[in-house]
Design goal:
This protein has helices spanning 5-16, 60-65, 76-81, 86-98, 111-115, 119-130, 155-171, 187-194, 211-219; strands at 41-43, 68-73, 102-107, 138-141, 179-181, 201-202. It is of the alpha/beta class. The chain has a six-stranded parallel β-sheet with strand order 1-2-3-4-5-6. Strand 1, helix 2 and strand 2 form a beta-alpha-beta unit.
Length: 221
């Protein structure tokens, strides 16, 4: 819940000037979806319902009409502050897929899970319960303890988690679904993170709010 129209337009202008082969998607607040010109956009959430008396919610159909190509679902902040279950995330993902919107499904362990050595257990459970039965999705691994804290997971921790996610997806007969890493990603660590096996991209939070912080991430890999 950051930004305004002026900042969005400034980011759009900055992005239009860079040359990169990397795929870049901006997921802004709903009110700013139309401010990014030719840069692909996505939503930060969508409803599990198609239509109806659900005041304040945004349906996948509304997102599609706004030009969204993807939507972030099950972000740790939605799971924590809005009590979203993995089953709810799955219902939202199914709605998104029905409108040809690619779900970016977030999974990740808390600090308590990490200390209890339950990372793989938590990831497996979230993946099995959050993914719809079929359809291409993007997975975003975001260790909850590394979001907004300035503490990124180590290369070894990221490699272990992404390898486990990849193996779990294969066991579920789900292939060719990209896996992103999210958690205090910045220009200083993006290239190193992107060099880790099974890391296909990054989900950038705070460092995506200004061109000065965001563009170096895009151009560093």
């Amino acid at each position: 819940m950051n930004g305004d129209a002026a900042k969005a337009k400034a980011m759009a202008r900055a992005l239009s000037k860079i040359k990169t082969k990397n795929q870049v998607v901006i997921c802004p607040p709903f009110t700013l979806l139309d401010k990014f010109g030719k840069t692909p956009v996505g939503g930060q959430d969508c409803s599990a319902h198609l239509t109806g008396a659900y005041t304040g919610e945004i349906s996948a159909g509304m997102l599609a009409e706004s030009g969204a190509k993807c939507v972030i679902l099950g972000h740790s902040e939605r799971r924590q502050y809005h009590n979203e279950s993995s089953e709810t995330v799955r219902a939202k993902a199914q709605q998104a897929l029905s409108f040809d919107i690619t779900p970016i499904i977030c999974v990740g362990e808390t600090l308590a899970d990490k200390k209890a050595k339950r990372t793989n257990e938590v990831l497996t459970d979230q993946l099995k319960k959050s993914l719809p039965a079929e359809g291409k999705v993007i997975i975003a691994y975001e260790p909850v303890w590394a979001i907004g804290t300035g503490k990124s997971a180590t290369s070894k921790e990221i490699a272990s988690a992404h390898a486990h996610i990849q193996k779990t997806m294969e066991n579920m007969k789900r292939y060719l679904n990209p896996i992103l890493y999210g958690g205090s990603v910045k220009a200083a660590n993006a290239a190193e993170i992107m060099s880790i096996p099974f890391v296909d991209g990054v989900l950038v939070g705070a460092a995506s709010l200004t061109p000065e912080d965001f563009i170096p991430i895009i151009t560093s890999v």
